[in-house]
Design a protein that fits this description.
By secondary structure, the protein is of the alpha+beta class. Helix content is 32%, strand content 23%. The chain contains 7 helices and 7 strands; from the N terminus they run H-E-E-H-E-H-H-E-E-H-E-E-H-H. A hairpin with a 2-residue loop joins strand 1 and strand 2. It is globular.
Length: 173
């Protein structure tokens, strides 16, 4: 259905790592390697509790946005420009068994990554749980390391202030 995207997925990034991720970041919806995508303060991988065919449909839906520009004003009302969490929202839109509900923020509908983390936290261990934690790597900026952390650590991560890495890991003089 998307031969150009499929062909691009067979390639490698400039450092020689295989493309395996589709994500929205500057400059837009792109294919990237896990090594490049995971170059972040922290990384969480959540898997929806959906069938393989429903997850495959989400990947196909995400492919349809390849090349879509990044939106800097976080506006979910259109899909001609996307942010990271909007790509996830659009890819799984309509999937039975996964409810991602945007909230109104500054007069615009938006679904933040922290909101998805809160959803996991709220639903964990209940009959309504729709997401499973696959991996949580918690970064330490000062030591330039990442630590594999558990569900409990991830459950509180969405509550962190935006600049927690500066407060939590700043060197003392």
């Amino acid at each position: 259905q998307f031969p150009k995207a499929y062909a691009a997925f067979q390639g490698q990034d400039p450092r020689g790592f295989s493309y395996s991720i589709i994500e929205a970041k500057r400059p837009g919806v792109i294919l990237t390697s896990l090594e490049d995508s995971a170059n972040a303060d922290s990384l969480a991988i959540l898997r929806p509790r959906l069938s393989k065919s429903d997850r495959f449909r989400a990947v196909v839906a995400a492919f349809s946005y390849l090349g879509t520009p990044y939106v800097y004003n976080f506006d979910f009302r259109t899909d001609n420009e996307l942010v990271c969490s909007e790509l996830i929202y659009k890819a799984y839109e309509g999937a039975v068994g996964l409810t991602l509900t945007p909230e109104e923020l500054n007069g615009r509908p938006m679904l933040s990554p922290n909101r998805i983390g809160k959803k996991f936290d709220d639903e964990l261990g209940t009959a309504q749980q729709e997401l499973d934690l696959v991996l949580f790597l918690d970064g330490n900026e000062v030591q330039e390391t990442a630590v594999d952390r558990d569900e409990e650590a991830f459950r509180s991560s969405w509550r962190r202030p935006k600049w927690h890495i500066l407060k939590d890991y700043a060197p003392t003089f």
